[in-house]
Amino acid sequence: MFPNNGGSAPMQRLNCLFHFQRIAHLWTPIFGQAVTVEQVCLAMIQLKAARLCHTPGHRDSWMDIAGYVGCWDKIQRGE
Q: What is the dihedral of CA 34, 72, 23, 3, to 10 degrees?
């Protein structure tokens, strides 16, 4: 997940938005269509869910999912 830089909530939201936008930009040519920030978030959650199918007790994957959901929420609320 993204490191907590100890910044303010708006700065942390911008970091989530910045990173998700960067990933979307990088994935767009791979998939041959525009990728949204929301799609990046869903894909990252699914990646962690797929890992949990093999190792359901891996706490870090559960925490990462919570972190991706938290980032999505901050972006959606414009915090």
A: 170
pLDDT (tens digit per residue) in 31-55: 999 999 999 999 999 999 999 999 9
Where b means 16+ CB within 10 Å and e means fewer, 3-21 reads: eeeeeeeeebbebbeeebe
Question: What's the count of helices (H) and strands (E) in the chain, helices before strands?
Answer: 3, 0
| Token pair for 29 | 């040519």
What is the predicted pLDDT for the residue at 15? Answer: 84
- Of 69, 25, 27, nearest in space to 48 by CA: 69
